Amino acid sequence: MPASPSTARAINDRFALRLLQQEGPLTAGQLKQLTGLSRPTVADLVDRLTAAGLIAVVGEAGEQRRGPNAKVYGIVADRAHLAALDVRTEGVAVAVADLVGRVLAEASVPIDGDTGTGPAVEQAVALVERAVKEAGADRLHTVGIGAPGLIDPAGGELRDSSGLPAWHRRLVAALQERLPEARVSVENETNLAALAEQRDGAARDRDTFVLLWLGHGTGAAVVLDGALRRGASGGTGEIGFLPVPGTSALPTSTDCEGGFHSLAAAAAVVDLAVECGVPVAAGQEPSVVGVVRAAAAVVREAVGRVPGAAPPDRMPEVAAGASPSGDPGPAARFLDALADRIAVGVASVVAILDPGCVVLGGEVGQAGGAVLAARVQDRIARMTPLPTEVRATTLGGGAVLRGALLTARDRAQEELFAPRER
């Protein structure tokens, strides 16, 4: 059955808005060319979208022509403002953006583990309110939150999880209460990181891949045929609970110690570096990112892959660990041992899903870069007959915030750009 004239107009309007969002400001002539619509139809939709306050004239075309230059139309970016939150065990980061995704303000605050639930929630909400004010926004249309733990696939709520701060669950309700006009949603942090890697990062050319998150903890996100998979209970990718060899116990339903978490989480990685003889500056709490980054820099410099790389001894978190002859020594042993551990988890994922591509994400994946990714890929090639490319993240720890912002923008545009009968 053919669409009614009003439905056809609504569909054309949404198509034009999507083009303006993807391509940037366009003239009516460019819209005609890209949509294939007639000139009168494009003129009508431009008038409708302008009257609705969704687009406006943002300039004129620069080409030489008789008569006035063609008007250039763009989405009204301040029609709606969005916020994205990256909620971690140790703090919160927030970004406020306009409807086209341009970031207007960013802020973060550490939250100590001894902070009570009420004060922690208040710190996080106050951070959002300050960022909104700094961005010059009157109110928020959509808020996207990335948090560790399980998300209930039915209600979209963060489930109570042992080992995670109680203020995580309270924060969502508090934001909805303080921002009653905003649409607030929460998603698992690793899932959001995978969406960001697919849209803007290392997996842009992949419809099927797995993101392995390596940071304070471990996690995984599964994208199959372009769709994010969450599982029956929202737990797809909880790889920290995966039983693996090399640990002294088995994980339990309430504690992932003894699982893959015990091999590849931040504390275990730092301990591994010390075991491999990577010297850590006395009196300093070693940063897992600094340890891995410094080791990778030593190896890269030793093999000459990155000429002119910054000397690793300028990194305060860890000494280079190289001999005077340039032998990478402890650094290479550490990265080899770390790759062995990571490959145990990756091989399990590959055997079940055959994704063809695994992205090493998070701060540790970024710090190890191509050096660590190549070592993991070499081990996977020996452990499974399934061809698997291992890539390093291009977004690192910022992928969660980026994914939350992309999700918030998509939801806001879905509502504002939705076809309406006229």
From TrEMBL:
<dbReference type="InterPro" id="IPR000600">
    <property type="entry name" value="ROK"/>
</dbReference>
<dbReference type="Pfam" id="PF00480">
    <property type="entry name" value="ROK"/>
</dbReference>
<dbReference type="InterPro" id="IPR011991">
    <property type="entry name" value="ArsR-like_HTH"/>
</dbReference>
<dbReference type="InterPro" id="IPR043129">
    <property type="entry name" value="ATPase_NBD"/>
</dbReference>
<feature type="domain" description="HTH marR-type">
    <location>
        <begin position="16"/>
        <end position="65"/>
    </location>
</feature>
<dbReference type="InterPro" id="IPR036388">
    <property type="entry name" value="WH-like_DNA-bd_sf"/>
</dbReference>
<comment type="similarity">
    <text>Belongs to the ROK (NagC/XylR) family.</text>
</comment>
<dbReference type="Pfam" id="PF12802">
    <property type="entry name" value="MarR_2"/>
</dbReference>
<protein>
    <submittedName>
        <fullName>Transcriptional regulator</fullName>
    </submittedName>
</protein>
<dbReference type="InterPro" id="IPR000835">
    <property type="entry name" value="HTH_MarR-typ"/>
</dbReference>
<dbReference type="InterPro" id="IPR036390">
    <property type="entry name" value="WH_DNA-bd_sf"/>
</dbReference>
